[in-house]
Each structure stands twice: as C-alpha cells, then as structure tokens.
Amino acid sequence: MSALERIAYADGDTALTGWLARPSGPARAAVAVFPTFMNTTPGVEAKARALAAAGCAALIGDFYGPAAPHDMASAFAAMTALRADPRAMRVRLRATLEALEGLAPGVPVIAIGFCLGGMAVLELARDGADFALAASFHGLLATPLPAAAPIKPRLLVCHGDADSLVPRADVTAFWEEMDAVGADWHFLSFARVEHGFTNPLDAMGEPNPAYDATADRQSWAALMGLIDEVAPAR
Amino acid sequence: MSALERIAYADGDTALTGWLARPSGPARAAVAVFPTFMNTTPGVEAKARALAAAGCAALIGDFYGPAAPHDMASAFAAMTALRADPRAMRVRLRATLEALEGLAPGVPVIAIGFCLGGMAVLELARDGADFALAASFHGLLATPLPAAAPIKPRLLVCHGDADSLVPRADVTAFWEEMDAVGADWHFLSFARVEHGFTNPLDAMGEPNPAYDATADRQSWAALMGLIDEVAPAR
Prior knowledge:
By secondary structure, the first copy, chain A, is an alpha/beta fold. Chain A is built from 6 helices and 8 strands, in the order E-E-E-H-E-H-H-E-H-E-E-H-E-H.
C-alpha cells in the first residue's frame, strides 16, 4: 500500500493540506474526497485508496487548514465555525476541486464525501459547481442556502434511514429542493442504519457501532456503478 | 441463447405455466421472477436469462393460468380479478415459490418482480413466506393487508420517483409499515424516472418512453450486489 502524497494548496490566505492517491495508470476520473468533520482519518484514506485502485486520482480535501483539530471537541468547534458562514464554506470547498483539477486535468471530476463531507459535495452542487457526479454518504441533507439554479452533477445520496441527524422530513425536503431545480438524483436508503455507516472505526479510532458492512458495501457499489457511467474504465 | 424450459405447475385446480432459465453449472440460488401484469414478456425473459448467466436458476411465474391475457385490456381485467382477493393472490404466488423450490432445491430462494410482480414479491414477504431476498422493480408499494408479522426476506425496492402509480405518500407509508415489523430494506429511488423503467419495450412491444437505461442498469446492479450477499458465487 503506497503512501498518500501530500498536496499543499490554499483557500486565499489559508494554507490547506490534501492527500492524493494516484492510480497505477492514467486516471479515468479525478475524485475529490471530502472527509468527516474530523478531517482525514484512516477510514477516509482507505476510500481514497479504493478509488485509486479503481483507476481514479483521489484527493482528500482539507476543511480547516493549519487549525486542524486533534480531538472530537476541537473538531466539532472547527466544523461549527466552518458552517457558520455557508458562502465562505463553499469557497473553501471549491479550493479542493480546483486543486484536484490541476493535479488530474482533462478527466471527469467527481466529488464524494462522508458526514460533513457528504454535506460538502451537496453544497458544491447547490453552489453551481460544474462537475460530473456528487456522492454523499451519510451526509446532512439540509442547507442554509437551498439550490436556486440548475444542479450540474448527477447526485448519489446514500443514507442510513435511522440517521438521527437526518430525519425523514429532511429526506423529502431534499427531494423537493432538488426537483425544483431539475436535479438528477439517485437516493439509496438503508433501513435501521445509522449515521457514519461507512466507517469501521469511530472518530477516536474505536470500533464504530454504527458501521454497517452491507450498507457500506452496497453504497460503494452504487458509487462504482455511477463512476462507470460518467467516467468509463479505459 | 437457449430456449426457456416450459414448467407445468398448479395452484389447486388452476394449471400454471412457468418458464425456467437454468445456469450452465450448479445453481447458486433459485429465483422466482414475477412478471408484469402482461404475464411473461420478452423483457422479463431477458431478466431471467441474465439471472441464469449469473449462476441462478430463474423461474418466471404465471399469474393467471389458462386464462392468460393476450392484450392489454384482458391483462388489466385479469390483474384486477387477481387482486380482488388478496389472500387468494398470495396462495397463487406461493405456488410459484413452491414449484421453484422443487426445481432447484437446497439453495437460497429469491423472488424478484416487475410492476405487478414487484407488488407480488412484497405480498409474499408480507404473507410471512420464508425466503432470502425480495426485490421489487417499479412495484406497487401499497397493500390491502399490511405486514403484521416479521418479514423474513431482506428487501430491495427499486423505485422511479416519478412513478404515477406510487406517490411519495405510498413510499413513506411503506417504510413505516416495514419498520413496524422490523424489516431489513434497501430503498433505491431514481429522480424523474417513471413506472416501468426496466422495460425497453412496452406491453405492446413498442419502444417504452418510461424506459431508463441508467435506472435499469443501476437497479440491476443493486440486485446483483445483494444476491452476492445472500447467495455468494461458488
């Protein structure tokens, strides 16, 4: 397993650090991987490596910069600060897309994310960002800035129906928001599955009781199926 | 492409005719394939052959027996008669499961269906039938006899969000019905996709405007992913 490559980029004056997994051959797609509110973790790095194994260049984005959190409390505070200004947050997220496009030019661009990262890819879509596919895994579906213009990427939302952070009212409101702008979405919901179902380990590196092997496997397969559509293997 | 094998079976005094697609080697699973209200069609036969190619014995069930319809009007009348007695309908459906189990014993049993057939596999699950996986493709989700006992199969529901026969209220009611009995469901919904999205041809053999290649492909992949879980390839 090769080490991830450290990538320095920036959002204005804020230095950011991304982690890049490269495929063994030419990339079929460039994938921005937005982590959880803990920023990058071994679980997210495993997903980036899986994308590289599938022929994609995968860049794990940095939400926070030098003030990156070291524990759950500081991560929660950092996330709260980031979300407090939704427009600034979108600028921060776009910096990762731009860095990615410089690293793997000329191939379809995809953004995926987990928890806060799932919300992030939907925020990019709502912001009008031009890319091929956005995939959210246990992401928050509500937004302070509902989509007002056409959504460019196709959307895949993989959701644990028992996610305490995303009640069913948020699900139907999301459908209505997306339909109002004609978005092309696939929604995959898993009964009795909770927030964070893709992570075998929790934010502290302990076994995650919300991990669900089936939901993890089937949601990842759904992503691979759509990557095959927007960026066919060469 | 080998011919399907004609299988004679019965529901009490009603003679039924199934069509069996066999895999080239030993079957990994036995799959009952419930067709649309038109009974078997070339589109459904293609799905049975795809299951055989994936290592499953696939038996297309017969809803109607000797009174099988020859046009849409008579098919609609036959479906209406079948659905008029929900308990008798369930007995009819169980006859196909039983015939299948005799043809391919000792392997996990799966039931899939399209339109009326999608409703059929959910009705079998609601009736307490003991099998491994039920998969509905653009099936009706409402029922005259809501589930009252635990659901034995895992459930995969593949749904076109724009299906005029299945409003969103039916979707959320289905989730509530299934959760009340602790069912293990995966729900896959496709934006702007209409009823009958898996069929390239309509009931009259003409191109089907509701056909959606992406929804067809991704819903089938979801089925294959779950078959891999309940009946791993040997």
